[in-house]
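In this section we walk through a basic example: taking a raw amino acid sequence and producing a predicted 3D structure, encoded as discrete structure tokens. The instruction is simple. Fold the sequence below.
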Amino acid sequence: MESLKNVLFEVREHVAHITLNRPEVSNAMNLEMSREFYEAAFECEQSSDVRAVLITGAGRAFCSGGDVKSFAAQEPSRLPAYYRRITLFLHQAIHRFARMRAPVVMAVNGTAGGGGMSLACAGDIVLASESARFTMAYTQIGLTPDGSSTYYLPRIIGLRRSLELALTNRVLSAREAEAIGLVTRVIPDDQLMAHAQTLVAELAKGPHAGLRRTQTSPLRRDERFTCRADGV
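The resulting token sequence is shown next.
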């Protein structure tokens, strides 16, 4: 998909590699990035060649959430529609990742804030670098959580912890995130991508039929899962 610029996409040896590619703004998500992210998700879902998916961020951050500067650049009357378009594409991407019969691995290589933390929550396996940090960050800019976080987060860490993180925007270290179950495993910074690539390669070479049945079982996701523009 050579037309994509804000999201890098490549399939190699049955693994779809997706990289959020706006490192100069900590991979903050604007309308163009969210649209391209959806296109990458659509390609993964439609391709019979994809047996595992790896999502990470370029540079020193995974994804800092919505691009607040792009929000501020909108005329006040157009801002609600702009925000809804961003979340529409993001939610449709997460929706497709949730239902595709390939495991989705998140390699969180730095800050995961707002929509970035929500995206991390949607992974089947979440690897985080030692320097990774997680924060909900929505309410501090007057927004409610979106990106499927209100569906996944309580199921992963419980309702009380989820409410605390959503209301206070407390920043979690990678080790704290691992301790409460948000992160599968913490990896030294310089080993994260090598570890993630080895993992997805093993998954792609694994017993595909068995993995597919596991992916569609209740162990993975509630089939009633849907996304809305104001959360889930």
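Looking at the output, two observations stand out. The CA atoms of residues 6 and 83 lie 18 Å apart. The beta strands are 7-12, 15-20, 52-57, 61-63, 104-108, 111-113, 125-129, 133-135, 172-173, 185-187. In the next section we compare this with other chains.
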